[in-house]
Write a structure and sequence with these properties.
Elements: H1 20-24, E1 32-33, H2 53-59, H3 61-64, H4 74-88, E2 97-100, H5 102-114, E3 120-125, H6 129-136, E4 141-148, E5 151-152, H7 154-166, E6 173-176, H8 190-203, E7 206-210, E8 235-240, E9 252-255, H9 258-272, H10 277-288, H11 291-317, E10 323-324, E11 332-336, H12 343-352, E12 356-357, E13 359-360, E14 373-377, H13 383-403
Parallel strand pairs: 1-12, 3-4, 3-6, 6-7, 7-8
Antiparallel strand pairs: 2-9, 4-5, 8-9, 10-11, 11-14, 13-14
Helix pairs in contact: 4-10, 5-6, 5-9, 7-8, 11-13
The structure holds pyridoxal-5'-phosphate.
Pyridoxal-5'-phosphate (PLP) binds at residues 37, 102-104, 128, 177, 182, 210, 212, 240, 242, 247, 252.
Length: 405
């Protein structure tokens, strides 16, 4: 049967990633994968942490196993507010919070609420691929702003905004992952965060601050949330339990002006009525028992160790003319190879001959650049796999450099 004629035209935008097929090969156990974006499987919730959970859920039976409010379980919203205040310096009341089915759903809602076809949306170069995938469905016009070691170049952004303004174009929002970005691992300085807010005010746009990694930074750097500095209600702040507790729960949250949260709720209602109340009560249990606050320092300690091993292995093995980011937290390192190298073309060789995989960087760049880049994940592989995998990858890259001009 030919199903093509049944599909809506937007399905053509949902093209599957062309590297997906190749990455399936990484399921082969002998391949060391730096391609995923998964938490360390050893750091998923432990049975001792979840002791009493079943009884807790049964105690909440008529709520946990029932339909729930679209905005989320009220007690969980209260916990999220307390947590966001304590660790993120964000002030919010219960009308300014909505529980979402992961941050991914919040991004989908952002796409539905704010983007009409042809609207201008500003993203970082590179940016989070799955955000692009949902934004794409609303067919925006992208403007990509380069990043350096200090995050998004807000000076370039300012120039671009002036240019757009002179053409009568007003972007809807800037989408940023300001702390330990996926895919680059880079963090935006506080000065630039302030500058971004000033620009939002001057040129009248919203800021989508996507912050799954801000709670797992390794040093003393104080990564002030943009939302915490927002006096005008321009920032829509997104975060999630995925990296600090469990991605399997599919529970995240958004904090924004209450008018925007009402719009979020209307959009969400048509998507899933509410985030699974069972999942929300598991998150609430983890919050109330202090499980999440206890595990954050452990995540930080373990991921820092892995980050250090990856950076040292890169230092020890990679040929000259290769550079990479030095993340202060999160889960990713981003690598630039010699211009002549195409990491997408190289991937097949990497997986089949060198038994190592990564994500080629090009699809993270809305301007079509980044062909010589790759994203490496350090949270999922073991310490030994990181050492060995970087060794293999470096051997491949050295061989490729020798073959290139
Ligand atoms: C920048 C960014 N935003 C959003 C998400 C989605 O997170 P969630 O599991 O909460 O849907 C991820 C997950 O990797 C991410 O890296």
């Amino acid at each position: 049967m030919n199903y093509e004629k049944f599909y809506a035209s937007r399905v053509s935008i949902m093209r599957p990633s062309d590297i997906r097929e190749l990455l399936k090969w990484s399921l082969d156990k002998s391949v060391i994968s730096f391609a995923g974006g998964l938490p360390d499987p050893k750091l998923l919730p432990k049975s001792f942490e979840l002791e009493g959970l079943f009884e807790y859920l049964m105690m909440k039976n008529e709520y946990a196993f029932q339909y729930g409010e679209t905005e989320g379980v009220n007690e969980l919203k209260k916990e999220v507010i307390r947590f966001s205040k304590k660790y993120g310096g964000i002030n919010a009341n219960e009308d300014e919070v909505i529980i979402t089915t992961g941050s991914q759903q919040a991004l989908d809602i952002v796409s539905r609420l704010f983007i009409d076809r042809g609207n201008y949306v500003i993203v970082e170069l590179p940016t989070y691929l799955a955000a692009l995938q949902v934004f794409n469905l609303s067919e925006p016009q992208y403007v990509g702003i380069p990043m350096d070691d200090n995050g998004m170049r807000t000076d370039t952004l300012e120039r671009k905004l002036k240019e757009l303004n002179s053409e009568g174009i007003s972007p809807k929002f800037v989408y940023t992952v300001p702390t330990c970005q996926n895919p680059s691992g880079t963090s935006m300085t506080v000065d630039r965060r302030r500058h971004l807010l000033e620009l939002a005010s001057k040129y009248d746009f919203l800021i989508i601050e996507d912050d799954p990694y801000g709670y797992i930074t390794f040093g003393d750097e104080k990564m002030e949330r943009i939302k915490a500095m927002d006096n005008e209600g321009r920032v829509i702040y997104l975060s999630t339990f995925s990296k600090i507790f469990s991605p399997g729960l599919r529970v995240g949250w958004a904090i924004a002006n209450e008018e925007l949260i009402r719009s979020f709720a209307i959009a969400k209602q048509g998507m899933d009525l509410s985030t699974s109340p069972v999942s929300q009560y598991i998150a609430l249990f983890a919050m109330e028992k202090g499980i999440i606050e206890k595990r954050i320092p452990i995540l930080i300690r373990e991921y820092k160790k892995k980050r250090d091993i990856m950076l040292q292995s890169l230092e020890d093995n990679m040929p000259k003319e290769t550079k990479w980011t030095k993340p202060i937290g999160g889960m990713f390192v981003f690598v630039w190879l010699k211009d002549a190298i195409d990491t997408k073309l190289m991937l097949e060789k990497a997986i089949k001959n060198y038994k190592v995989s990564y994500v080629p960087g090009k699809s993270f760049f809305v301007d079509g650049t980044g062909k010589n880049t790759m994203r490496l994940n350090f949270s999922y592989p073991s310490e030994e796999q990181i050492r060995e995998g970087i060794h293999r990858l470096s051997n491949l890259i050295k061989a490729e450099y020798n073959n290139s001009f």
